[in-house]
Amino acid sequence: MTKRYGLIGKNIDYSFSRAYFADKFDKKKDSNSTYENFDIDKISLFSDIIEANKNITGLNVTIPYKQTIIPYLDSLSKKAKKIGAVNTIQITKKGKLKGYNTDWYGFYHSIKPLLKNSHKKALILGTGGASRAIEYALNKLGVKYQFVSRTASEDSLAYSDLNEEILSDHTILINTTPVGTYPNIDQYPEVPIDYITNKHIVYDLIYNPEETMLMKLAKEKGAIVKNGYEMLVLQAEKAYKIWNRPFPRD
């Protein structure tokens, strides 16, 4: 029986997932599984995708729908509910949709080996759906954090607030924004690079380009840098396990 998987998102031709799963199925000699992109301009079209594709086993969800997709689902795992964002959907034989978040898992396991005793506080750049998974993972790791956004609010600093004192106190920087993604490879979040040192970890969730401008500049300052590729692989494998296990289970 053919198993169909796919990705929900907007402008997702660049997608990591489709190529990754095609390669995975090829290596497994699994000719019964397929993975396709469902590119939609607005989240309200998600219902049409489900209606027209009754035989889908599971879906991934990417920007900008990780939060807005939640009302369209029948249930959420405990972790997805706590995070408030979904990147994986399991579909039952009866067509029920359950949302999960595997982004936190991918980030948690990819950053953990880099952490030293000096890495106690982090700055999370961005406040979108991806940032919520990072927040959840940092809580599990016992790392304190502060959100950074374009404008200051009760919950976040503005980029213009960042100074030497804040950067020296927060030795982990995590970019959850799309700033610096191909083709805009010369861009980077408005972080004061001069205050980054060899005590910092700079983790950029972007994977295309392989080395973002933020990573390049931070590396020149001696920081440990990492892109989002390993996180993506780990979250994808976790999603695949969810799709292929009995429903429902958290």
Task: Walk me through what this model shows.
This protein is α/β, with parallel strands linked by helices and 250 residues long. The protein has two domains: 98 residues, Rossmann fold, CATH 3.40.50; 128 residues, Rossmann fold (3-Layer(aba) Sandwich), CATH 3.40.50.720. The chain has eight helices and twelve strands. The strands form two sheets. The protein has a six-stranded mixed sheet with strand order 2-1-3-5-6-4, with helices on both faces. A six-stranded parallel sheet has the order 9-8-7-10-11-12, with helices on both faces. Strand 11, helix 7 and strand 12 form a beta-alpha-beta unit. It is elongated. The relative contact order is 0.14. The model has no long low-confidence stretch (mean pLDDT 95).
What would the keywords be for this entry?
8 helices, 30% helix, Rossmann fold, elongated, 6-stranded mixed sheet, 12 strands, alpha/beta, 6-stranded parallel sheet, 250 residues
